[in-house]
Design brief:
Structural class: mainly beta
Strand order of the largest sheet: 9-10-14-11-15-16-17-18-19
Number of helices: 10
Strand content: 25-35%
Radius of gyration: 26 Å
Largest sheet: 9 strands, mixed
C-alpha cells in the first residue's frame, strides 16, 4: 500500500483548480475554503522552487525535481507538509524527479513542503551550526582495555572463493524476475559441517557504464553492467571463513531496482522492500538446505568444494536496507507470512541463531525479539542519518522472552557506505561516494581526525560481525563483553573508537519508563521517546536513535524515557516502577543514559531503595559525550554499570527493589535515562520460538452520500498464542494519530481495527487512513502498515 495514494477518480473541483497544470501552493496555516467545494488550498499560491502540482486521472500529482541527482541509498525519500507525512514518492530513473499521487484530503494543505530521507532534509542545504565538541582527543588518549579474545584475528583455515548463479525468481509485486547469485568464501581443510553466514547488501545503484552515475534499472540496459554490490564484503567473508564459517554474499540488484517504483509505474512498498529481501534470503537458504542434504550432488561446484553447511547454525548479516531484510527473514522463518505476499512458501529447514546489522533501516520498528542481534550504528552515517537501527535493540523490550542479547555498537567516525568496498571510492568498480553530506562538519568531514579510513572502517565491520558470529553462533561467551556494554575493545578494530550498550541476555528489568512510573524530585519528567504532538515539549529529543520516528505516527504513545535536568548538584530524582523489581540474581545495575551534548564529566550518583525503605548508594558514574556530528542523530545512550556490593553490605532485600535514585553531582546539565536493568555475566540460550503474527492489509470503499459506516481494516493473525499490539490510525486531514492496545487471543485470525466513515456530497473528499501496528508483547508484526482508502463518489 502507499501513503497518500489516490484511489478515486479526479474530482471536477480538482480538475478546475489544477487542470492547467500550473504550480500551486498554500500559505502557511491556510485552510481549504472558497471557490469550488473541496478545492485544494494549494491552488491559491505558488509552490516553492522545484515543486509542481497537477491534475491527473489518478488524482493530484505532486512532483519535486532535485537540482542534482539524489544518490541512491537506504533511507526512503519522503514528502512532508510541515510534520505531516504525505507519502513516499516514485523516483524517476534519473534520480532527480520524484512524484506522488495525493487524494483530495491530502492535497488540501501543502504548506511548508519538505523532502526528507533518514531524518535529514534533501531540498535545502543544512550547514553545521557551532563547533564540534573536543571530546575525540580525550577518548582516543584513554582507549578502552582490550578484550582477552579478539574476534578480528584470522583463524587457522585457508579459504576458497567462487560464485554461483541460479535461475531468476519471481517475487510478489515485482514485474521483473530477481537474480539468484552468490559469492561463496569458505574454509578449506575442516571436518564435519560448518555454520553458515549469509550476507545481504543494501540499497544502491544496480547498473553502471564507465564513470557515469549508477542507474537503478533491472535488467540492465544494453551497454551497462550490473553493479557487483554483493562482492563488497570480502574482508568480512575471508575473516569468517578463516575461522571456520561457510559464507555467501547474495546479490539483490533486482530488488533494489523495483522497491521504490523507479520505473514510474510500480507502487513503492511501504516496508522499503523488506518482505522481498526476506523472500530472496530464504530462497537462498532453502537451496543451501538442499545442498546440505540429498541435493549436494547437484550443487554448484563452489558449494561442493566447500564444507557442508550446518543449517541449524545460521547467522544473517545485512547492511542498510539489507539489515531490515534479514531481520524480516528472521521473523518470517519463525512464523511464515501470509500467502500471496511472500516469494518463498517452502519448509523452513534452518535455524537463525543471530543477526549482524550494519547501518540498517528500520521502517517497520518490529524486529525479531527472540533472535539475538548486533547492530552497528555509524557515527557519521550520511544516509540513514537518524540511526533508526537503534530500534533493533529498543523495540524488543518486553515483546519476547527477553533472553536474546541485543547489542548496539556505536562507531565514531564511520560513514554508511565504506563498510562495502563496492560503495567506496578507489575500491569500487562503479562510481561511488562518501555519503556524509557536509565537507564542513568538524567531526565527519573526510579530513577530520575523527573520520575512519575505508581500510579502518572495513576492519571494524569485519571484527564486529565476527564478534556476533562467535557470540550468537559459536557460543563463545569470552567475546560477549565486546557487544554488551562491558567497556572493552577489540584491538583488531584499532584505532576506531567503538562504544556499546545492550539489553537482553542475563538482564532483568529494574526500570523501563512508562506512564505508570512515579517520579519525584525537581527537574525530572517523563518524556515521549518519539514525536509528540506538534508544538509540545513532551518529546525527549528532536528525533533519531532511541527517539526515531515510527512514520507516519504522530504522536507516538508507548515509548518513554525520563529526562533529568538540574542547575546545581545534589537534588535527588527518585523513579518508582509500578511494582517491585528483583535484583536477587544480578551482579550489577546497568543503566542506559544519554549524556548532555558536548559536555565532559557529567557525574551522576546512583542509588536503589528496597520495599522496606532501606537505601544504598551503588556508586558514581561519569559520562563524557562523544564527538557528535552536526547532521547525524546525537542521542545515543551510554551504558553505566555499577556493582551491587554496597546494597548487599547495607542489607537491602534485593528481591524487593522499589526505587531507583539519581543524584546529579556535576554543576548543571540534562541527561535522559532510557532504562535500567539488573546485570550478570553470561549469555543464556535465547529460545526463539514461533509467536502469533499480525499482518495488516488494505481496504477500498466508496464514501457514500450520508450516514456513518464503520469499516474494518484487514488484519490477519497467524500462528498461535497470545499477545498484544498497539495500533495507530492516522487522520488523513491532520496527520495526527490515535492509538489503542489490541489483544491477540488464541485461535484468533484477525484483530479489530474499526474506522468510522461519514459520507457526504462534497467533491474532492477522497481520503486514505493509514494504520500502523507495533508489537507490545508476545507477538510478531510482519506487514506493519495497512490502509482504508475512501473513494470520493461525488465527482
Amino acid at each position: 500500500m502507499h501513503v497518500g495514494r489516490a484511489m478515486m477518480a479526479t474530482t471536477l473541483a480538482l480538475a478546475l483548480a489544477l487542470g492547467s497544470g500550473s504550480a500551486a501552493g498554500a500559505a502557511p496555516g491556510e485552510a481549504a475554503a472558497g471557490g469550488a467545494q473541496g478545492a485544494p488550498a494549494a491552488a491559491k499560491a505558488g509552490l516553492p522552487d522545484g515543486w509542481a502540482l497537477k491534475a491527473t486521472a489518478a488524482g493530484a500529482e505532486l512532483t519535486w525535481r532535485a537540482p542534482a541527482p539524489v544518490p541512491v541509498g537506504g533511507a526512503m525519500v519522503q514528502f512532508y507538509a510541515g510534520d505531516r507525512l504525505l507519502g513516499r514518492p516514485w523516483a524517476a530513473k534519473d534520480q532527480r524527479s520524484f512524484r506522488l499521487i495525493l487524494d483530495g484530503t491530502a492535497a488540501r494543505d501543502l504548506s511548508d513542503l519538505q523532502v526528507r530521507a533518514g531524518g535529514r532534509r534533501l531540498d535545502v542545504t543544512v550547514e553545521p551550526k557551532g563547533a564540534a565538541t573536543a571530546r575525540a582527543s580525550r577518548l582516543a588518549a584513554a582507549p578502552l582495555p582490550p578484550n582477552p579474545v579478539d574476534p578480528g584475528v584470522a583463524g587457522p583455515y585457508s579459504t576458497l572463493t567462487g560464485d554461483y548463479t541460479l535461475p531468476d525468481v519471481q517475487l510478489p509485486g515485482f514485474p521483473q524476475p530477481v537474480e539468484m547469485q552468490g559469492l561463496v568464501v569458505a574454509p578449506r581443510g575442516t571436518t564435519g559441517s560448518r555454520p553458515l553466514v549469509l550476507l545481504l547488501h543494501g540499497k544502491h545503484g544496480t547498473c553502471y557504464r564507465g564513470t557515469e552515475n549508477p542507474t537503478v534499472e533491472w535488467p540492465c540496459p544494453a551497454g551497462f553492467t550490473p553493479v557487483p554490490n554483493h562482492r563488497g564484503y570480502q574482508r568480512t567473508q575471508q575473516l569468517l571463513a578463516s575461522q571456520g564459517y561457510v559464507t555467501v554474499s547474495i546479490s539483490a540488484n533486482g530488488v533494489n531496482a523495483q522497491d521504490n517504483g523507479a520505473d514510474g509505474n510500480l507502487r513503492p512498498p511501504e516496508d522499503g522492500g523488506a518482505q522481498a529481501r526476506s523472500s530472496l534470503v530464504r530462497l537462498h537458504l532453502a537451496r543451501w538446505a538442499d545442498w546440505a542434504g540429498t541435493g549436494r550432488p547437484s550443487a554448484p561446484s563452489v558449494v561442493q568444494s566447500a564444507p557442508v553447511a550446518d543449517m541449524s547454525r545460521v547467522l544473517l548479516m545485512g547492511h542498510s536496507r539489507g539489515g531490515e531484510g534479514v531481520s524480516r527473514a528472521a521473523v518470517d522463518s519463525l512464523t511464515p507470512p501470509p500467502a500471496g505476499q511472500d516469494g518463498y512458501r517452502g519448509t523452513v529447514r534452518w535455524q537463525i541463531r543471530g543477526l549482524a546489522l550494519i547501518g540498517p533501516t528500520a521502517v517497520t520498528h518490529n524486529p525479531a525479539p527472540d533472535v539475538p542481534s548486533m547492530t552497528i550504528l555509524p557515527g557519521c552515517d550520511g544516509d540513514v542519518a537518524d540511526l533508526a537501527g537503534q530500534m533493533y535493540i529498543d523495540a524488543t523490550r518486553g515483546v519476547g522472552r527477553g533472553l536474546a542479547l541485543h547489542s548496539s555498537v556505536y562507531v565514531i567516525g564511520a560513514n554508511h557506505n565504506y563498510f562495502n568496498t563496492e560503495w567506496t571510492p578507489g575500491l569500487s568498480q562503479a562510481l561511488s561516494r562518501d555519503d556524509y553530506p557536509s565537507p564542513h562538519d568538524p567531526v565527519c568531514r573526510s579530513a577530520s581526525p575523527n573520520r575512519l579510513t575505508p581500510e579502518n572502517q572495513q576492519r571494524v565491520g569485519a571484527t564486529y560481525v565476527a564478534a556476533a558470529a562467535a557470540t550468537f553462533v559459536a557460543g563463545n561467551d569470552q567475546v560477549r563483553p565486546l557487544l554488551d556494554g562491558s567497556g572493552v575493545r577489540a584491538p583488531s578494530a584499532d584505532p576506531a573508537i567503538v562504544l556499546t550498550h545492550a539489553i537482553g541476555g542475563n538482564r532483568t528489568p529494574l526500570l523501563v519508563p512508562d506512564t505508570s512510573t512515579a517520579l519525584s524530585g525537581s527537574g525530572a519528567r517523563l518524556c515521549v521517546a518519539g514525536p509528540a504532538v506538534p508544538s509540545s515539549d513532551e518529546a525527549c529529543a528532536s528525533g533519531g536513535t532511541h527517539f526515531a520516528t515510527f512514520e507516519p505516527v504522530r504522536p507516538e504513545v508507548g515509548r518513554y524515557a525520563v529526562r533529568v535536568s538540574w542547575s546545581s548538584p545534589g537534588t535527588a530524582v527518585t523513579m518508582r516502577p509500578p511494582s517491585v523489581a528483583s535484583l536477587a540474581n544480578a551482579q550489577s545495575v546497568a543503566l542506559r543514559i544519554v549524556p548532555p551534548e558536548g559536555v565532559a564529566g557529567t557525574r551522576l550518583e546512583v542509588a536503589i531503595v528496597d520495599s522496606a525503605g532501606r537505601r544504598a548508594t551503588l556508586g558514581e558514574a561519569t559520562l563524557d559525550a562523544p564527538p557528535w556530528p552536526t547532521q547525524t542523530a546525537k542521542d545515543w545512550a551510554q551504558e553505566v554499570r555499577l556493582p551491587l556490593t554496597n546494597a548487599t553490605a547495607a542489607g537491602l532485600n534485593l528481591s524487593q527493589i522499589s526505587s531507583l535514585v539519581l543524584v546529579p553531582r556535576s554543576a548543571s546539565g540534562t541527561a535522559v535515562l532510557i532504562d535500567a536493568w539488573g546485570w550478570r555475566p553470561g549469555t543464556p540460550a535465547p529460545q526463539a520460538t514461533a509467536l502469533p503474527r499480525v499482518d495488516l492489509g488494505e481496504l477500498t470503499v466508496l464514501e457514500g452520500n450520508s450516514g456513518t459506516t464503520t469499516y474494518q481494516v484487514p488484519a490477519r493473525v497467524s500462528g498461535s498464542g497470545t499477545g498484544q499490539v498497539r495500533v495507530f490510525v492516522v487522520d488523513p486531514a491532520t496527520g495526527l494519530s490515535t492509538a489503542r492496545l489490541v489483544n491477540v487471543s488464541p485461535g484468533s485470525t484477525t484483530i479489530s481495527i474499526p474506522i468510522p466513515v461519514t459520507g457526504n456530497t462534497q467533491p474532492g473528499d477522497g481520503r486514505t487512513y493509514v494504520v500502523a501496528a507495533r508489537a507490545v508483547r508476545g507477538v510478531l508484526v510482519g506487514d506493519a502498515f495497512g490502509t482504508l482508502t475512501v473513494q470520493d463518489d461525488d465527482a
